């Protein structure tokens, strides 16, 4: 057993657990975090986004990203996240560049943004450009959602889903609408794994159809990783180390093959490159085989995407490998 220096969790180093360096595979996904501006400030937010944050993409980095989208046909998916990606600079130019190049565009939306002044056109815009919408709805019950995301968020989310359905989302095969379930942040040592994704999807579908006439395509269950606001909360409750130990105790080696960090590049609003959004939030940059950090400008200069051999890992990687696993696309096995 190795002791990890930071926060002193008594857990096995992730790399030692999997027995090999976590290798990068062919890059096919570009996940761009457009910035920290968001109309909400959720308790489980690993980005610590909110209405007072001002960090967002610059025109220069946005143009470089557009060049990357044009230059690399092996990129199949452009995944836009934030903050609320719709609120941050570069949202529409990136959607349009990616769609022009035949890439699938994922917009990770909190749904409530559609009711903020200046953003009312977003649902129609997304439908017109056939973006896939992956929307947070951390529970199908109102109280749980409002406790995690703020009063009135559930009601606004339901109205947004009805709006998207009217535009053809979850009806037209080109208009995919997925929901994301995040468990409640733990308050005691009675931790539990994320529930079974397909069973929970059926529960969501039944409840939302019966009560609100809402349809969606897939439900993704995403584990709370102990970083950002979740880490602060766990540390306040002295649950940080026990939670990591719980995640490690439920390590499932079958998830490793499908970890999202293996085939994606995660980009921050400054154009720096990471192996995943979680490493971005904890400031662990991706490294080339010679140990250099990367930027979008350096990728363009090199003219290739395969500059990283090994994914940088951390204790919170156990959140992605516990039980059925977890990623931005839900369970892994
Ligand atoms: S909506 Fe998403 S980005 Fe915004 S605060 Fe909530 S979790 Fe964070
Ligand atoms: S946090 Fe998850 S996605 Fe990120 S490097 Fe670790 S295992 Fe990969």
From TrEMBL:
This is Arsenosugar biosynthesis radical SAM protein ArsS. The lineage of its organism: Bacteria, Bacillati, Cyanobacteriota, Cyanophyceae, Coleofasciculales. Pfam families: DUF3641 (PF12345), Radical_SAM (PF04055). It comes from the Bacteria. Residues 32-169 form the Radical SAM core domain. Coiled coil: none annotated. Keywords: Iron, Iron-sulfur, Metal-binding, S-adenosyl-L-methionine. InterPro entries: Aldolase_TIM, ArsS-like_C, rSAM, rSAM_ArsS-like, rSAM_sf. It comes from Funiculus sociatus GB2-A5. Residues 193-331 form the Arsenosugar biosynthesis radical SAM protein ArsS-like C-terminal domain.
